[in-house]
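Q: Could you predict the 3D structure of Secreted protein with PEP-CTERM sorting signal?
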Amino acid sequence: MLTQFSWRSLGAAAALMAVVAQAQAYTEHTDRASFTAAQPSQYLYTFAAPNIVSILSSAQGDLADVSTVGGDPYGQAQGSNVGGSSGGGIDNFKPLRFDFLQPVYGFAFDDFDLTLDESPVVAVSFADGSSFTHVLGTVSEAFTPLFYGVSSAVALTRVEVFSSDAGFDYQPGNRANLVGNVTLGVTAVPEPPSMVLGAVGLALTLFVRGRRRSRSEG
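A: Sure. Here are the predicted structure tokens for Secreted protein with PEP-CTERM sorting signal:
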């Protein structure tokens, strides 16, 4: 029969395993080479203006729906990049949203049109219900592209991107944003086995110690 200590040990180990799994669910990338290494099967999108951008298609079907948060149900191609749209016209001040229609495990882009005092903000949602919002920092030279990518063991469901005044409230609407070289990765990233095995080993160790203690006290 399991003692109270054994149950607590198993509960603590299970909680640790959950934390490990969540911590290792995704990796953020600051360069395209590392993203490509994590996502060897990918689709790169460039755009041709003037056109609306509503669907990102691939050889395996439509991968993503593109829309403007608070605007039109699509984005607007600008040069080879894409930005927001409102009332049928260009509106780069609103967040651009990508909703994934198939399992997508990686998303990357180059953020253009950045000045020295603004920061891109990216919000990522996952199929397990988790999400995060991160500020990507600033550029050292105005209008230099800033790369960002995320790869995950859990499928992505949505990504939103916008720009904000650096160091202020990081809310959409005060800075324009334009993204290009949008890349969708379809390679599932495996969980690091060493971390999972380590958590399992700890769970067994705590359980065995609890059993031994209960026997010695009995």
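Q: Anything worth pointing out?
A: Residues 24-192 form a domain with the Jelly Rolls fold (CATH 2.60.120.430).
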